Amino acid sequence: MQLRAEALEAHLSKGLSPLYVISSDEHLLAIEAADRIRLKARAAGFTEREVLVVERHFKWGELLAANQAMSLFGDRKLIELRIPGGKPGKDGGQALQDYAAACAASAGAGDTLTIISLPKLDWQAQKSAWVGALQQHAVYVDIPAVERHQLANWIGQRLAAQAQSADKPALEFMVERVEGNLLAAHQEIRKLGLLYPEGRLSFEQVQDAVLNVARYDVFKLSEAMLSGDVARLVRMLDGLKGEGEALPLVLWAVNEEIRTLLKLKLGTADGRPLPMLLKEYRIWGPRERLMAPALSRVKLSTLEQALSRAAQVDRMIKGLRSQDFAGDAWDALLQLALMIAKH
Question: Could you tell me how many helices (H) and strands (E) the chain has, helices first?
């Protein structure tokens, strides 16, 4: 049974299932969903808790043993299985299938409740037999990422939950300050609730209270470049530089997007459908939605020139001179990224 995160509270009000799966890359939302289940489980008498983390040498027999072991005090037990990498392997996949079937068979009669935590799974993993078994036998809560264009609305909803509100400029200010970091956004929202009374917040109040807690992500930089968001691109590159991010890694991320765009451009020029190419190069999610507009905006000649100039930026990083760029390597990288963002 697949369930949306916002429907979890209503589901829990009707009773508990023996097995829950939470899949998300949004750590805050995953934690909140697990906390709701834990709270309901504790009220239902699941007072003993055992946490298993799937690491390199994890033995899957431990999961079955935890499920079968009787509590020393006769209490009902909550088992939490965390799979940080999202790849249980062949043995783990079979163990999860067997475990899910066993939980379904004991529904309503068992003294154990299990929460399995996973990251967001790619399309290949989602088609695997073990995921299918979990979706069939468990309450499967797949929590999508909160994309940047959704973040202002998300912040507004969180403010409303504590009886506060803010206008659009104030919300956008918060979005810029918490770039991609829901945990930081949550902390700032809670801070506003402590600092100010219920009601509408002014821009000045938000500005005074909210710190610059942006998490500048090298891979989100590519998103800004593909979407043509020049202001965000400049801000993120400056942030990455200020945080001491390794310049070769940032160049690699930019260069990979240029190479990908070039492959897609050449492929579509040969008459191959873009959806087929996107699947072939394993491009999905936000990147998939950005590729088509970027391809229509950027010319083939620009991509070829950008690829050549990326090699020059690499030379600059290694201390060699460039014929096309002046200044330092960070400035050259900005000019390279703007070639894609501004065309």
Answer: 17, 8
Residue 198 structure tokens: 């219920």
**Phi–psi pair at 67, nearest 5 degrees:** -75, -35
- Do 182 and 29 form a contact (C-beta atoms < 8 A)? yes
Query: What single letter denotes the amino acid at residue 139?
Result: V
- 3-class secondary structure, 86: coil
- Residue 326 C-alpha from the chain's centroid: 37
Coil/strand/helix, residue 92: helix
Domain 2-142: give its CATH superfamily: P-loop containing nucleotide triphosphate hydrolases (3.40.50.300)
Does 1.10.8.60 match the CATH number of domain 148-209? yes
How far is Cα 67 from Cα 54, in angstroms, rounded to an integer? Answer: 16
Whole-model pTM?
A: 0.67
Count of other CB atoms within 10 angstroms of residue 71: 14
Domain ranges of the chain: 2-142, 148-209, 218-341
Could you say which DSSP state residue 19 is in?
A: E
Residues 6+ apart with CB under 8 A from 107: 17, 18
DSSP string of 197-218? Answer: -SEEEPHHHHHHH--------H
- Select the CATH number that applies to the domain covering 218-341 from these four: 2.40.50.140, 3.20.20.140, 3.30.450.20, 1.20.272.10: 1.20.272.10
Nearest to 182 by CA among 160, 216, 151: 151
Q: What is the DSSP letter of 73?
A: T
pLDDT in tens, 36-52: 999 999 999 898 888 99
Digit-coded pLDDT (tens) for 269-298: 999 999 999 988 888 777 888 999 999 999
Neighbours of 243 (CB within 10 A): 10
Facing residues of 2 across strands? 140
| Nearest partner of 201 among 234, 173, 237, 236, judged by Cα | 173
Q: What is the DSSP string of 225-282?
A: HHHT-HHHHHHHHHHHHHTT--HHHHHHHHHHHHHHHHHHHHHHHTT--HHHHHHHTT
